[in-house]
Amino acid sequence: MTMQPPELAAFAEHCRHRVETALEQFLPAPATLPQDLHQAMRYAVLDGGKRVRPLLVYAAGQALDADEQALDVAASAVECIHAYSLVHDDLPAMDNDDLRRGKPTCHRAFGEALAILAGDALQCKAFHLLAHAPMGAVDAEARVEMLELLALAAGSRGMVGGQALDMAAVGRELDIAELEDMHIHKTGALIRAAVLLGAWCAPTLAHDQRRALDHYAKCIGLAFQVQDDILDVIGDTQALGKRAGADRARRKPTYPDLLGLAGARERAQELHQRALHSLEGFGAEADPLRWLSHYIVARSA
Asked: Are 296 and 12 in contact (CB under 8 A)?
């Protein structure tokens, strides 16, 4: 596991506890009918994962003095979308993976049909949370902004569209612009949404603050994928919690393929520095965002 500065470790522990407590409460109980479906939903979301996207929600919210109750809801919503996407991406019709977060993928544990339904239900749950869960002083206008933001990030102009581009790219040679366009959608869109959802939970959000956080999010969204591609080459299955070398085995285009390992590492660092530069207008209250940017490009899993 990547070593973290003590400040980030303490911040991450606090945020993970909050979001996991919230998810435990928000998800239907395992004994609630239909039991198999609700157990599959909980299996996909709970007990695993780095929670990077929820951490970004909390970090952006802290930078703007947002209420943690509101951040709990936004963080839970974005994690439900992320978990649903993993369940569907792992299916035989997509990436056909057997391991996720160090345990059998949802379709291996519950069957393909129930995994599809669990993913569908998790997507719906995310929007229900943003529409109805208690969020303190967050008003209806801000909720609508968050609903629109997450819907765009998750749909054909974001994550789902990126997955379609990813599938179409198998076995093809892409140039760097095409590769980055694919990952801006597939990985970057939901990371950007996580940061901006946290920002929308704040009592006030100035235009220049939103623009700076948006640029930060775009940079770390790409950096996250660059590091993922690097780890697919140099990582090991046990540390990653998923099969190492899977992208290369499927002949998917990656940053190391186009830039080499050294070039990919240089690209990740360039994006990290650009992310830090975008936060120059913030003080120490944005330090968790800075720590997370460093973590994203330094992680080993």
From this structure: no
Q: Could you tell me which of 65, 11, 136, 81 has the C-alpha nearest to residue 282? A: 65
Measured from the Cβ of residue 1, the count of other Cβ atoms closer than 10 Å reads: 8
CATH of 6-298, one of 1.10.600.10, 2.40.50.140, 3.40.50.1820, 2.40.30.10: 1.10.600.10
Which tokens is 234 given? Answer: 């140099």
Orientation of helix 287-298 relative to helix 6-26, angle to 10°: 90
11-48: pLDDT as tens digits:
999 999 999 999 999 999 999 999 999 999 999 999 77
User: Cα–Cα distance between 120 and 245 in angstroms, integer?
Assistant: 28
Six token digits for residue 198 = 């946290």
Per-residue confidence (pLDDT) for residue 7, from 0 to 100: 83
* Rounded CA separation 282/261 (Å): 33
Count of CA atoms in the C-beta half-sphere (13 A) of 113: 1
pLDDT at 180 over 80: yes
The residue ranges of every structural domain in the chain are 6-298
Amino acid at 27: L
pLDDT at residue 80 is higher than 80: yes
- Read off the pLDDT of each residue in 106-134 and give the average, rounded to a whole number: 97
Cβ neighbours of residue 77 closer than 8 Å, sequence gap 6 or more? 125, 126, 127, 129, 130, 146, 150, 197
- Amino acid 234 reads I
Burial label, 196 (beta-carbon count in 10 A; 0-12, 13-18, 19+): buried
Amino acid at 166: D
